């Protein structure tokens, strides 16, 4: 898949909206609610994923389906998998409700007059961090191999500084470590890599 050159503008607009949106909601909701929102988003999905296999074994759902559907699922050998998916959705919804109640409490704390100013400023700063994190995800999607020209397009957008930073950090840490583990000479690789880029 190839990204059209016209999408550069729209990607830039998307990045600006992500950053401004996260800053706005961080400022509006306060530090505790903002940081809790990010952490709970990850925790809720992980918990739902971890709980679903056990719940599907203890309380299988597919036996309550009509017999024709049960037979169809058994033939395809996805009856257990279907239980896990359904329990994942159920667990996710229940955890989201619990998470929403806690989030509401944090928003109420944010309304306390003395705490409000500091909470808003910290929320704004954390909103920026959260926005940059979302931009990293967007950059990862562009460079994941789904798009042939994803890297070239990302270099033409305002994601370029993030891309450059991530490449430097990656090459300075993880990539070098992998090459050390594989007993490959790092300097030789770097030299060959530069020669290939010149071609």
From TrEMBL:
<dbReference type="GO" id="GO:0016020">
    <property type="term" value="C:membrane"/>
</dbReference>
<keyword id="KW-1133">Transmembrane helix</keyword>
<keyword id="KW-0812">Transmembrane</keyword>
<feature type="transmembrane region" description="Helical">
    <location>
        <begin position="85"/>
        <end position="106"/>
    </location>
</feature>
<feature type="transmembrane region" description="Helical">
    <location>
        <begin position="31"/>
        <end position="51"/>
    </location>
</feature>
<feature type="transmembrane region" description="Helical">
    <location>
        <begin position="7"/>
        <end position="25"/>
    </location>
</feature>
<dbReference type="GO" id="GO:0009403">
    <property type="term" value="P:toxin biosynthetic process"/>
</dbReference>
<dbReference type="Pfam" id="PF02674">
    <property type="entry name" value="Colicin_V"/>
</dbReference>
<keyword id="KW-0472">Membrane</keyword>
<feature type="transmembrane region" description="Helical">
    <location>
        <begin position="118"/>
        <end position="142"/>
    </location>
</feature>
<protein>
    <submittedName>
        <fullName>CvpA family protein</fullName>
    </submittedName>
</protein>
<dbReference type="InterPro" id="IPR003825">
    <property type="entry name" value="Colicin-V_CvpA"/>
</dbReference>
């Amino acid at each position: 898949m190839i990204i059209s050159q016209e999408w550069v503008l729209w990607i830039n607009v998307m990045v600006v909206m992500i950053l401004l949106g996260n800053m706005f909601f961080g400022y509006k909701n306060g530090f505790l609610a903002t940081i809790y929102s990010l952490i709970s988003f990850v925790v809720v999905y992980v918990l739902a994923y971890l709980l679903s296999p056990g719940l599907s074994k203890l309380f299988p759902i597919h036996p309550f389906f009509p017999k024709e559907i049960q037979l169809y699922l058994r033939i395809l050998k996805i009856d257990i998998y279907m239980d896990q998916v359904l329990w994942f959705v159920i667990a996710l919804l229940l955890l989201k409700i619990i998470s929403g109640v806690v989030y509401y409490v944090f928003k109420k704390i944010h309304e306390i007059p003395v705490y409000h100013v500091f909470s808003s400023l910290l929320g704004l700063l954390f909103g920026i961090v959260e926005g940059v994190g979302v931009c990293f995800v967007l950059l990862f999607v562009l460079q994941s191999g789904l798009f042939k020209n994803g890297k070239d397009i990302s270099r033409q957008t305002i994601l370029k500084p993030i891309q450059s930073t991530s490449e430097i950090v990656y090459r300075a840490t993880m990539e070098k470590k992998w090459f050390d583990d594989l007993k490959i000479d790092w300097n030789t690789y770097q030299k060959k890599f530069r020669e290939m880029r010149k071609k």
